[in-house]
Write a structure and sequence with these properties.
The chain is of the alpha+beta class. It has 3 helices and 5 strands; from the N terminus they run E-E-H-E-H-E-E-H. It is globular.
């Protein structure tokens, strides 16, 4: 079962692609061989959700972000939508948060 932990902080609402009516910036932090990451990739593709995928094995800054939001663990997939960070979310959860943010609501 996926557990989604929402943590917020950082840039104020409306920053980095979160202006009302615009698509929010979605980053997915992943690693090769992760079946949960693959399932999320397929689920997002089927829902037409675009995201930037950051491999934590090749991107030290991405790994640092993941550890900061997961108690020092490299839990993947971790998804950042604007200032909201979700750990191991479903594709539906990602889409719901992105839609809420693009409407100007809290995600």
């Amino acid at each position: 079962m996926a557990s989604a932990h929402k943590r917020t902080g950082g840039a104020p609402a409306g920053a980095a692609g979160t202006a009302r009516g615009s698509a929010p910036t979605i980053e997915v932090f992943w690693r090769p061989g992760c079946p949960f990451c693959q399932a999320l990739r397929v689920g997002l593709r089927l829902r037409g959700v675009r995201a930037t995928w950051r491999n934590i094995y090749e991107d030290p800054a991405a790994a640092k972000i993941v550890r900061a939001h997961n108690g020092g663990n490299e839990t993947v997939p971790t998804v950042r939508i604007g200032t909201t960070v979700l750990s191991n979310p479903t594709a539906g959860t990602v889409r719901s948060h992105a839609r809420a943010l693009s409407r100007g609501g809290a995600s």
